[in-house]
Input
Amino acid sequence: MYRPTLYSKHDQTMNDFAELFNRFPDYRYIEMRPNPVKTYDNDGVFLDHLHKRKIGYDWEYRDRYFANCIFQYPTLGQFERKIRKPSIQISLQCDSTETGIAAAWHSDWKLEEQQHLDLRTDYEEKEKGTTRYTNKFKIYSYEKIGDFKRMIAAALEFQIYSSEIF
Output
């Protein structure tokens, strides 16, 4: 993350979401487990204790363009440096009001063209980065956490790690 001012908000929103996910009574054998320490790799994993499988995830807190489960653009972006990591299969982007997440599979981003952009940081200079954008993402409301947990359970059971599982 190139915006250190958001580190604590990132961790707090991820931990709150994991608690909500794990508290949901269905699919108790699926656990969202954030990494206890920052690894600069994935942010954690979804563990399937029944089938002995896992999905690595990246978590982002979006302070702009995404609030109240409404994302302002038709495509969702991700940094190439994250898409390339074999330890991350899905990215989750939390909205600024902590009412929804946008979920997208890295396999779908890999089908899209790379774009080279100047990206926002906490500093005056921009980060020159490579990103990809996809329209194959889905927004899940915190109020309907069961829909998201069902999707993760199905992805793990059937080993489908793309938008096909939405």
